[in-house]
Amino acid sequence: MDRVLRNKFYSKIPNFWDRLYGMEYALFDCLELTSDELDQIKRATTDTYRIYKKISHLIRGASNETLLDLGFPEKALSFLRNVHLPYETVIGRFDFVMLQDGPKIIEFNSDTPTFIRELFEVNGLVCEHFGIQNPNSGEDVVLGKAIRNSVFHCANDLELQRHPYVIFTAHEDDIEDRETMMYLMDLAKIKGAHFIPLQEIQLITEGENKGVYDLEGNKVDIVYRHTYPMEALLEDVSDNHFPIGIEFMKLVEEKKVGMLNPVSAFLMQSKAIMALIWGMYEQRHSFFTQEEQKIIHQYFLPTYLDEDPFVTTGEKYVSKPAFGREGNTVEVKQNGKTLYTEQEKSYDHYVKVFQKYIELPVTTIKTEHGEKEAHLLIGSFIVNEKASAFGFRAGAKITDNLSYFLPCGVRGEAK
């Protein structure tokens, strides 16, 4: 591949992070899919979300002890049962592995999924260049409408009698987070919306002016914090040890400000939910209908809250934290011994889940340094409860933050 052509192509996309950590991230390549593979991914996304939505209603009524067993932080317990929107999450992303018998779910990032601009915008530009159908065509328009819809419902929940003041926020010094939020704000086209860095948000926690404010003293009605994970927010404190995150969540609870994604999205974020779903499936629990049990059998992997089932069988399995990202703190194990692990251990303090190990499929990708083999992971979005854009990460056995973005397209008519 001509490195000059690659750089010329990506340089035309304003403010896009085609390189991360000084290395190539977005590949100038396009993985060709069949219409059948496209259909399988869409169906898996729809069906799997159906299971998650049903289980979230059950979890919301669970005891604090059960929520702690599922890995939720104690600081989150008083907020987890709050419902602010008529759907569980605005934007969520499933991670699937494509096997011979179809996709299998690895995890669900229902709270703060990234990989958005890559799939909703850049994938289409690459497809156009290579003359191949973009499977995500039109999904950017759907996403913009979904965000506006969620702002409408959020404003209704706050009982606002005027147009809401909406801010999109992220860590300003992180290009991926910042530009993802700028992209979402641009898609949403919400009148008067602004991007405001996290450090510039002001809280008033007492008195009649309780609420969230910008630096000019304007009261904020809705905060879109899509790239700032709830588990990190809950731990956020100021330099003088003021618990900013907890106080912000109290304002959300008191309906002094709205938040997107909503708290209900976080309720599905714990990977321990997969262990709960699988355990109920193994017991053939009546909570799931026969049709739903077929969906679990088809798309879910054996997942538990202890490793004994895998130690007993001698199977390979994956240990991963209930809350974690980019492969951090993930281990591949067998008979209780670690075979392969990521060096980063930032999420080691969370409850662990243990999932059957499956090999990620391998393909040959074109990098600026030539061809190489890489493992494929599918990211598939659910937007306002409907299957949406999807795409591929290509990298090591454990997909981490150094994995590539591999654009994809469909030969012939994309449905």
How would you sum up this structure in a few lines?
This protein is α+β, with helices and mostly antiparallel strands and 415 residues long.
Quantity of strands, as a count? 22
Strand percent estimate: 15-25%
Mean pLDDT: 95
Helical content class: 25-40%
Would you give an account of this structure?
- This protein is an alpha+beta fold and 415 residues long.
- The chain has a domain at 302-357.
- The chain is 32% helix and 24% strand.
- The protein contains 12 helices and 22 strands.
- The strands form 6 sheets. Strands 4, 5, 18, 19, 20 and 21 form a 6-stranded antiparallel beta sheet that branches. The chain has a 5-stranded antiparallel beta sheet with strand order 13-17-14-15-16.
- A hairpin with a 6-residue loop joins β8 (202-204) and β9 (211-213).
- α2 crosses α11 and α5 crosses α6 (175-188).
- The two termini are 30 Å apart.
List the helices and strands and how they pair.
Blueprint: H1 3-11, E1 19-20, E2 23-24, E3 31-33, H2 35-60, H3 64-69, E4 91-99, E5 102-109, H4 116-130, H5 139-157, E6 166-168, H6 175-188, E7 194-195, E8 202-204, E9 211-213, E10 219-220, E11 222-224, H7 230-233, H8 244-253, E12 258-260, H9 263-266, H10 272-282, H11 290-299, E13 303-304, H12 308-313, E14 316-321, E15 331-334, E16 337-341, E17 352-356, E18 362-367, E19 370-383, E20 386-395, E21 404-406, E22 408-410
Parallel strand pairs: 3-22, 6-7, 6-11, 11-12
Antiparallel strand pairs: 1-2, 4-5, 4-19, 8-9, 9-10, 13-17, 14-15, 14-17, 15-16, 18-19, 19-20, 20-21
